[in-house]
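Example S7 (structure tokens).
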């Protein structure tokens, strides 16, 4: 059973950076298993719907980003640590939200509990 645990959230000033990490258990990153995997970060701000932020898919790690974060955020995988990371730079107040890790592996979807990102001066 896949489990996802996020970390790295916190308070940061506008223009600052944070690195979120999603520890993945119950699933090992290998060339074979990654073929059927999609790992993503979503976020949800108060009063708003949950939105897709970034996705990394397949063995080659193809990435996609929402227009609102493109050029500022970078999603990556660390096979040695079994983590999926989100490097967030040039943070804006509108990036403030609860950030969730998501996985779809062989059709099975798992969500993490979320980590709060607050952008404020």
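Recovered sequence:
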């Amino acid at each position: 059973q896949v489990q996802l645990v996020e970390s790295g959230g916190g308070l940061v000033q506008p223009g600052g950076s944070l690195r979120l990490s999603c520890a993945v258990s119950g699933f090992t990153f290998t060339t074979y298993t990654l073929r059927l995997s999609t790992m993503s970060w979503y976020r949800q701000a108060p009063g708003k719907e949950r939105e897709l932020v970034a996705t990394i898919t397949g063995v080659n790690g193809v990435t996609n980003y929402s227009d609102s974060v493109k050029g500022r955020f970078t999603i990556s995988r660390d096979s040695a640590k079994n983590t999926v990371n989100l490097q967030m730079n040039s943070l804006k107040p509108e990036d403030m939200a609860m950030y969730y890790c998501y996985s779809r592996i062989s059709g099975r979807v798992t969500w993490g509990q979320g980590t709060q990102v607050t952008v404020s001066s």
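Notes on this example. The chain has a mean pLDDT of 94.
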